[in-house]
Amino acid sequence: MRVLAERVMMGPRHAIVLTVALNAIPLVQFLGIALIALVVLRQGAQGGLMVAGWNLLPLGLWSMFLAGPPISIQLLMIMIIGALVLKETSSWRAVTVVAVIHGIVLTIIIDLFAAEWFRQITEPAVLFQEQLAPEGVTRRQLYVSTLAWIGAFHALMFISLMMLARWWQSALYNPLAFGREMRGLRLSPIFVLGLIVAALLCILVGSPETIVILFVPLLVSGLALIHWLVADRELGAGPLVAIYLVLLVVNQVIIPLVLLLSLLDSSFDLRKKLAAEHND
Fold first, then answer.
1. Measured distance CA(44)–CA(220) in Å, rounded
2. Averaged pLDDT of the chain
3. What is the end-to-end Cα distance of the chain in Å, rounded?
């Protein structure tokens, strides 16, 4: 993976050729888009936009071929915005805000301009949910819920790709900085209050399903706290591997616990308290 980053940073020609080649292959488009974000993080908007412009061709052609919304192009655009925000602020809290906006905007675009396309590709999942759903739940509600989860997934994917781009930058130019930066991610009480207000607004406007997208910053912050705790106690990679495996298998139990951990950390600064106890 680092080899790709080294190649891209050799110059504009190398960056354009490699990213266009990757974005021409659907299964590895995420790597091409993350590499463009790396260019933006290192060189700013001017260098990044030049590389991104060439990549609109393969991404646009695939969108036309699949006859769906240009989701990959939107992801590229939001990655550029996220990289610029991170470059200027060095704040992962700001990046999580961009992620939430991305997830919500994506659901709105799909619902307004590609609803029929989305219904076709999610029909099997909705039918399966319909069999398990309580009586009285309509297919429209299941569709909206599925769309909200897709928005949350894309918000998480955006953050994951931003992490990959930042890790590449750290590996090439500032080793170990990425780990310290991510482990220090903590949501302020005002930030969490903003999420609560946004959740209430979602309920008031009749879109409670959208709240799942607002959980993304809390989830990332909670995982950051777990990484900090493992690093502070020098427990090695084993606990992290176990936690992520459990997260995949029983996510309905673990995710609420991680969200609760994030809320407690925001309110009481658990890192400070745990560090003090460890030093004592």
1. 25
2. 92
3. 41
Structural contact between residues 70 and 63, judged by C-beta atoms closer than 8 angstroms: yes
Q: Write out the two tokens for 136.
A: 């009285």
Distance (Å, whole) CA 88 – CA 83? 9
Is residue 192 within 8 A of residue 263, CB to CB? The reply is: yes
Are the C-beta atoms of 117 and 69 separated by less than 8 Å? yes
DSSP string, 3-55: HHHHHHTT-HHHHHHHHHHHHTSGGGHHHHHHHHHHHHHHHHHHHHHHHHHHH
If 0-12 CB within 10 Å is exposed, 13-18 middle and 19+ buried, where does residue 72 land?
buried
For the entire predicted model, the pTM comes to: 0.94
Q: What tens digit of pLDDT does each residue of 59-89 get?
A: 999 988 877 788 999 999 999 999 999 999 9
Tokens of residue 171, six digits: 């590996």
